[in-house]
Amino acid sequence: MQPVPPLPGSLAGIELPGDRVSRSVWAWAHRSLPEYLRAHSVRSYCWAAALGDREGIAYDRAILWAAALLHDVGLTSLPQNTMCFEVEGAERARRLLERFGMDPSAADRAAIAIILHMQPGVTVADGAEAALLDRSTGLDVRGDGYDLIDGVRDAIVEAFPRGAFDRRFLAAIRREAAARPACQSARLLNGTGLADSMARSPWAAASR
User: Fold this and answer.
1) Distance between CA atoms of 43 and 100, rounded to whole angstroms?
2) Which DSSP string corresponds to 29-56?
3) Which candidate, 119, 113, 105, places its Cα nearest to that of 133?
4) Which domains, from first to last, does the chain contain?
5) pLDDT tens per residue, range 122-148
């Protein structure tokens, strides 16, 4: 296993939290997440923070970082899951964060953000971190709001490349939808045309 790189203080001018829990989350992600999900998760934090800072939305960086890095952990255990992956992942994340020393109320906010990132209609009233994570994951998956991150996009993607993300993420969502057709993954895949949206996204156009 390769050593975990130090957590940088910032990426493309976007501040990263440097507290003990955030460093533990970073180390855990390097040990436990496949590269395509780890890079997606870091990009999602960066887009969320960039949007929040741009629009003056008050949020907790450590909670947003934790939620972003752990939001897809449920995709890593699809055969063993008994619930929708975002619910399964939220429960795992809550336990992990409390074990790392995060206050239970903060861990709960991270878990709620993870659950809600797959739901439609998330707003700041649901929690700033939840709203920003919802927007940033949609941005990284479908390119929603692509132009809003012009100032940081190239540097973040250079540091955390997309690689085979589209193909591998879509395959995981298809597995989830087939196993649990009542979950949000099936709605996104079959109800909103996720595969077509990804194929037509600015990310796909940029890679051609």
Assistant:
1) 22
2) HHHHS-HHHHHHHHHHHHHHHHHHHHHT
3) 113
4) 15-162 (1.10.3210.10)
5) 999 999 999 999 999 999 999 999 999
Pairing of the two strands 10-11 and 14-15: antiparallel
Residue 119: what residue type?
Q
Round to whole Å and give the CA distance between 17 and 42.
12
Q: Which two tokens stand for residue 142?
A: 């479908």
Residue of 66, 65, 85 whose CA lies nearest to 75: 85
Convert the pLDDT of each residue in 152-181 to its tens digit.
999 999 999 999 999 999 999 999 999 999
Output the six-digit token pair for 208: 């051609």
* Alpha-carbon torsion (13, 59, 183, 189), positive or negative: negative
- Which amino acid is located at 106 in the chain? A
For residue 144, count CB atoms less than 10 angstroms from its CB and return exposed for 0-12, middle for 13-18, buried for 19 or more.
middle
Position 1 confidence tier, pLDDT thresholds 50, 70, 90: low
- Report if pTM > 0.70: yes
